[in-house]
Amino acid sequence: MRSETKILGSILLFSLALIAGAVIILGRGSSNTVIESNTKSMEIDYAKGQKIGSDSAKVRLVEFSDFQCPACKAAEPAVKQVLVKYKDNLQFIYRHFPLPQHKNAKSAATLAEKAAESGKFWQMHDLLFETQESWSAAGDPTDFFLSLAARLELDQDQVKKALENRPFDGKINEDVADGQSLGVNSTPTFFINGKKLNLRNFTDLDKAVVDELNK
Question: Which of 92, 120, 165, 190 to pair with 32, CA 20 to 30 A apart?
Fold first, then answer.
């Protein structure tokens, strides 16, 4: 009986540790509000970024994200869920915000933009997050990124040139500058209809979308 009690106690402690870790990674503060207090609608240029959904959608959700960011990867299921659930009324826009401490993030953004030229941004977007642990710590992720390009049947030589010459740095840097002007300093950061979200966890995205749809 003591042995079972110890095991149950260990499981409880482990579960509490996981919950605490999730709060640290996903939490955005203890506020009960989803939209930050005192937040006015900000001027966001919706012409920029990679999009899913109609420009006439009632709700526009913008994410500033970093392909090397673990929390951005953790947000993906919630983003995909609202995209499916509210597809007729929601537009999602992805903006790059590679953090300086993530040394391979800008190369990953370059790879995604190169894939976009072949109409495969979102396929590469998904692959980069799915394989994040395989390339994020690499000293030089080029070979791995080329293997991802091969999976999407992209031209290997052209992808390699893009990774070397950085033709999308201007676009990526512009995303970062726009994010900074909106007060973005961490990833992921979400805006809904121009208002910055204060997410306790990523499932709050659903509530934020519903709140906007009900207005």
Answer: 92
Q: What is the pTM of this model?
A: 0.83
Give the class (CATH, top level) of 31-213: alpha beta
Residue 87 phi/psi, 5-degree rounding, is -55, -30
Burial class of residue 138 in the structure, from the number of CB atoms within 10 Å of its CB (0-12 exposed, 13-18 middle, 19+ buried): middle
CA atoms of 25 and 175, how far apart (whole Å): 23
Residue 121 in tokens: 């941004």
Q: Write phi, then psi, for 36 (nearest 5 degrees).
A: -60, 140
Domain boundaries, the chain: 1-30, 31-213
Both tokens assigned to 174 = 């512009």
Rounded CA-CA distance 191/81 in Å is 17
Q: How confident is the model over 172-205, as pLDDT tens digits?
A: 999 999 999 999 999 999 999 999 999 999 989 9
